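haha ok so turns out i had the wrong file open the whole time. this is the CORRECT one, sorry everyone. sequence first:
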Amino acid sequence: MISGPDGKIDARLFRPDAGAAQAGAVILLPDIRGARPVYEDLAARFAAAGHAVLLPNIYYRSTPAPQVEPGADFDDATRARLQGYRALLTVDAQFRDFSAYVGELERLDGIDASRVGVVGYCLTGSFALRLAAQYPDRVRAAASFHGGNLAKEGEADSPHLLVKQIRARVHIGHADEDASAPPEQIATLDRALAESGVDFTTEFYAGAGHGFAIADSAAYDAAASARHLRRLLNLFEETLT
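then structure:
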């Protein structure tokens, strides 16, 4: 459990092999269905590559993880329930949670909290950018895959307005068939990153839909997911070790 400003956060920590030196850390933020076994599998892959991995329950204010059991239908009732949980994740609440995550990494032995990477999927793609902006002196890598609403013009809390604070390397992986990331938002985000001098890459996954990277998603694309994992492992290898 992590002690946060808003309560106890249930989370899982995955460590690299015993005997490793101080490890850099990855904060793994799940999609709207929350922390569950498919993300534990991802965390294990990152840990096997030498990184400590923190997988928090982003919905701890509402219920312990998992919120959606493996194999359960993502039906209207489930969507409505998750939207209720999501409503508590205001931008201010996100920042409070980020402080708890980073504080936990600082507290733990065997982890170098000055070498942090963060990756978010779908809902949490925007979280990854915000966390990198909040901790520019700690976050060295930030990635979003099929993230939605990353650059909404006219929204005061849009994450693209914070990118000038980011010093991390940034990778954005877009599904090219994703209504939550329309071309105008992608262009706005790219322009903001470039104008802010951020070291970033934008990549499109041709023929892929929203959720392509995650194995229990209806839009899962095995080839695209494998490609996204290669990108992440390379990014973390180059920035966190």
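Residues 31 and 121 are 5 Å apart (CA to CA).
again sry for the mixup
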